[in-house]
Amino acid sequence: MSRELDKLCINAIRVLSADAIEKSKSGHPGLPLGAASMAFTLWTKMNHNGKNPNWDNRDRFILSAGHGSMLEYSLLHLFGYGITIDDIKNFRQLGSLTPGHPEYGHTKGVEITTGPLGQGICNAVGMAIAEAHLAEKFNKPNFNVVDHYTYAIVGDGCLMEGISGEASSLAGTLGLGKLIVLYDSNNISIEGNTDIAFREDVAKRYEAYGWQVLKVDDGNDLEAIDKAIEAAKAEKSKPSIIIVKNLIGYGCPAKQGKASAHGEPLGTENVLAMKENIGWKTEPAFFVPDEVYSNMNNYIEKGIEKEVAWNELFKAYSEAYPELAKEYNEWMNGEVDKEALLNNEEFWSFDKEMATRDSSGVIINRLAKLIPNFIGGSADLAPSNKTYMNGKGDFSAEDRSGQNLHFGVREHAMAAIANGMCAHGGLKVFCATFFVFSDYMKGAMRLSSLMNLPVAYVLTHDSIGVGEDGPTHQPIEQLAALRSMPNMTVYRPADSKETAAAWYYAVTNGTTPTSLVLTRQKLPLYEGCAKRALKGGYILKDSKKETPDVLLMASGSEVELIYKAAEELEAKGIDARVISIPSFEVFEAQDEAYKESVLPRNIRARVAVEALSSFGWHKYIGIDGEIISLDTFGASGKAEVLFEKFGFTVENVVEKAIAVVNKGIKVIYNQ
C-alpha cells in the first residue's frame, strides 16, 4: 500500500475526530490527533473484517483510553464497520452509535466497554487468557482455528491506575505472548504535564513484570511502528508493550503538546488552522477525499480475504475433527442445556448441613463436569472460597489447558479480567473473593452489569459470621450496594439447595452477572426449597391459617432464625409465614400475582431479618414493619457471640414479631 495514501487516511482520522468533537462541543481530541498514526498502522496489520465484526478468529482491539473514542469511531468508519459520516456527526448525542465512550453491544466492532481508565488493559489480559485456553483446547497440527492477537491502546492515565499494574503483573507471570499493548506516551493528563504526578520509568516497570518492551521515538514514523508490531508478534513467550512517543493534539498549532488538547474541543478557529497545517480542505466539515476510501477498500478486502481463508480452514477442520468442531461451536455459542441441568438430580442433591461456601464448592465441581468450558478462580483465596475444581488443572505459562485460574491478591483486576474473558466468547467464567472485598471489584462489576456479561462472582464470608477477623473483614453495606446496581443479580442463599439455584441462574441466564453471597458458617437444609428459589422469593413454611398473623422474611443464614421463630410464635398462638428471599432482583421479575401470593398486601405485620445493612428491605416491610439488621460496623469475636450481641437471635425475632402483631396496623407497600 502507498505510504502517502496511508498518511492521507491518518489525517482523515484526525479531521473526522476534530470535526465530530467540535460539532458536539464535547469530547477529547488530543488522543485521536496524537495517536492516529499508530492506531491506523495497527488496524492495517490486524486480522479483522468490518463486514463481519464478530468473526470468531478476528484480532481483538481494545481502546483502554476510552475517552479518545473518536479515534475508534473514525477507524470503524474507514475500515467498513458500518459507522457512517452521519453517525460521526452525531457523536455524543442521545441514541447515536458514537457515544462518549465506546460501548460493547451498542456499536459494531467495539469489543468491550472502556470507561474508567485502566479497565481496558485488564480486559485485554482476559481476552488473551481466553484465546490461549481455547487454542490449547481446539488447535490441532495444521489447524490453528484459534489463532489471534489481543491489542490494546493505553494512555498515561491507564498506567497510573493501580488496576493496570495488577493485570500487567499477572499477564507477565502467565507469559501471554499474544497480548500486545501500544502505549500512547504523550506525557499529558488533564492537570498538565504528567511529571507532576507520574515520573516512573514505565519501560523498566514492564520489564520487571516480564514483558517485552519496545520503543518508537516518533509516533508518526509508520515504518518504525510497523516494525515494532512485527517484533511484538514475533515474541511468543511474553506480552509486549510498545512505548510510542506521541504529541497530544498533533497537527493543531495552538494546542499540540498542551493539556488543553486533552479534554475539550479545539475551537472552530483551531480546527481550521489544523486542517490548513496538514494540507486539508477546510470546508465542508467532515470532508474526506475519495482517495481515502479507495485506499481503505484495499485494506477492507484484505480483511474479507482473511476471514474467507479461516472459514475454509475451519471447514477442513470440521471434516478432520467433526466432534471437536461441534464442541467448538457449542462453546462459542455459549450453549448450556438448561433442561438437562434443571433435571439433573445430582446437581440439586445435598444430604447434610454445610456452609453455603462449601456447598458452592461442591456445585462448582459438579458444574465443571457438566460444562466443559467452565473456568475461573480466586484472588488467592480458593481454599477459603471453595472454588478449586478438582482434576481440572491450573492455567499457567506452562499449561494453557488448566481451568483453575490463580489471580493472586488482585481483586479489582480479577473482575476486569473476567469481563474480558467473558466478552471474548467461548467460556463460562467465574471469579471469587471475600464479600467485603467486593469493594475492590466494584468498578469492574459495574461494567459487567452495564455490558450484560454473565460473569459469576463468588463472594464468601458474607456477614459478621466471619467472626474473629473483625470489622475490617465483616461486610455490612456491601449487599445493599450490589442490590442497588442495575442489572446485577444478587443471590444470598439460605442453604445448599438454594445455592444450587443461584448457580443454576448464574450459568444459564446469559444476560446479567450474578453475585453469589455465601456463608462461612454451617446452615441447615430445608425441604422443597431448591427450585422454588429460582423465583427469587418463596414461601418456605406457610402458616396454618388462611391469612397469617405475621410475615417473617429473611435471606441467607438468617432464614434459620425466622424458621425457628415461627415455631416459637406458634406455641404462643401467633401464626407466621416464613419467606425466604434469596434474590430481590429475581423476585421482583416475577408477575404481580405471584408476588402477591407470597407477600399479600393486606397482611398486617411484617418482620425482615438480615445481618447486614437494612437498606433495601423497607419496600417489603412498609413503614410499620420491623427490620432486624446491622447498620453499624461489626466487631471482633466468635460468630455466635456477635450474632447474639447484635440481636440476631430467635428470641429477638419473636419479640419483634409479637410487637408488630400487637400494633394491629395494616402494612401497605409497593411491590
The CATH topology of the largest domain is given as Rossmann fold
Q: How many distinct beta strands?
A: 20
**Uncertain ranges:** 665-671
Mean pLDDT across residues: 96
Largest sheet composition: 6 strands, parallel
Identify the CATH class of the largest domain: Alpha Beta
The fraction of residues in strands falls at 5-15%
The rough form would be described as: elongated
Features:
Rossmann fold, 671 residues, 20 strands, 5-stranded parallel sheet, 43% helix, 6-stranded parallel sheet, alpha/beta, 3 domains, disordered C terminus
Structure commentary:
The protein has 3 domains: 3-303, Thiamin diphosphate (ThDP)-binding fold, Pyr/PP domains (Rossmann fold, 3-Layer(aba) Sandwich), CATH 3.40.50.970; 338-523, Rossmann fold (3-Layer(aba) Sandwich), CATH 3.40.50; 536-663, Rossmann fold (3-Layer(aba) Sandwich), CATH 3.40.50.920. Helix content is 43%, strand content 13%. The chain has 26 helices and 20 strands. The longest helix is centred in the middle third of the chain and has 31 residues, at 290-320.
Fold topology:
Elements (H helix, E strand, L loop, with lengths): L2 H22 L5 H16 L14 E4 L5 H10 L6 H5 L29 H20 L11 E6 H5 L1 H13 L4 E7 L2 E2 L2 E2 L8 H8 L2 E5 L5 H13 L5 E6 L22 H10 L12 H31 L1 H11 L5 H5 L2 H4 L5 E2 H15 L3 E5 L3 H4 L18 E3 L4 H14 L3 E7 L3 H14 L4 E5 L17 H6 L5 E3 L4 H13 L5 E4 L4 E2 L14 E4 L8 E5 L4 H13 L4 E5 L3 H5 L3 H7 L7 E4 L8 H4 L4 E3 L10 H7 L4 H14 L8
Parallel strand pairs: 1-2, 2-3, 3-7, 6-7, 9-10, 9-11, 11-12, 12-14, 13-14, 17-18, 17-19, 19-20
Antiparallel strand pairs: 4-5, 8-15, 16-18
